[in-house]
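Journal club prep, notes for RB
We'll compare a predicted complex against what the paper describes. Inputs for the uridine-5'-diphosphate case:
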Amino acid sequence: MLISLIVPCYNEEEALPFLYDAVCKVASDESSYDFEFIMIDDGSRDRTLEVIKGLRGKDDRVKFISFSRNFGKEAAMYAGLQKSKGDLVAILDADMQDPPSLIPDMIRSIENDEADIVAARRVSREGEPRIRSFFARKFYKIINRMIEVEIADGARDFRLMKRKVVDAILSVSERQRFSKGIFAWVGFRTKWIEHKNVERVAGETKWSFWKLFKYAVDGIVSFTVAPLRFATYAGFFFATAGFVYLIYYFIRAIILRIYNDVPGYPSLLCFILFIGGLILMALGMLGEYIGRTFIEVKQRPVYIAAEEETDA
Ligand code: UDP
Ligand code: MG
């Protein structure tokens, strides 16, 4: 049986040697399996590609794809899954934050037929900036309330999957991929392995606040139209309120003959601003979905490879 390990790498020249040693150890401990290491160079600006080529030079289990520019981790994972040949396939980060030492446990769970997917979950977020943990937690709360499949808080992309799961994931052909959602959406029996947060072994995180914010919006918008529905409800509520107020005003003016128009000016202004804001918000949401349709319709590939040495 062949196990494919997929490693997305973006500026990971410092971390890769550590990772390579760790996966080699796993491979030698699990000698009843064959291994392939698929490294995806996601348009790195440092010497990542040279490091990968160096590894390939001495170890032909190492395969690689090098992107023509930075396409993001989602694209890198997709490319890796596409090129993987393994009966079992795992995805793990290059920085050792997905401890390779968990892989044997994952393999055992699959061997015992406890699950089709064994996924890792972080139970602590120690060592991560507070503000990031805070927003991450809120994000998972909000998204789980809105979509019909459940995405676990602290779930990572780190997982070992059977071939049939990989094929199912690849059959989800959308371009703007939000893997955590796709993993949950394809279903299958999942077993969770919990581990503490590990700090990256070298180099630094590629996530900025802005990137994470975009990731959160992508995640929500690619899985649910609930925000649009919210805009509809809010619009309906305010339109009704406006109508009721109009009737009230007419009764006052025509039947009770009370006229005191000018003092109403401030409240009127408030209302206009508020409703204007709501309309803009609804337009923004519409824009997100239309933009998404636009990008899907173009059917562009998820990534462009500049160089590739794989079996696929
Ligand atoms: N990564 C990637 N492309 C990107 C950003 C990140 O392939 O545009 C890879 C990165 O090399 C690492 C993994 O995705 O292997 C996770 O990234 P990072 O460690 O920076 O994220 P964090 O652990 O801070 O969430
Ligand atoms: Mg990391």
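Talking point for the session: The longest strand covers residues 2-9.
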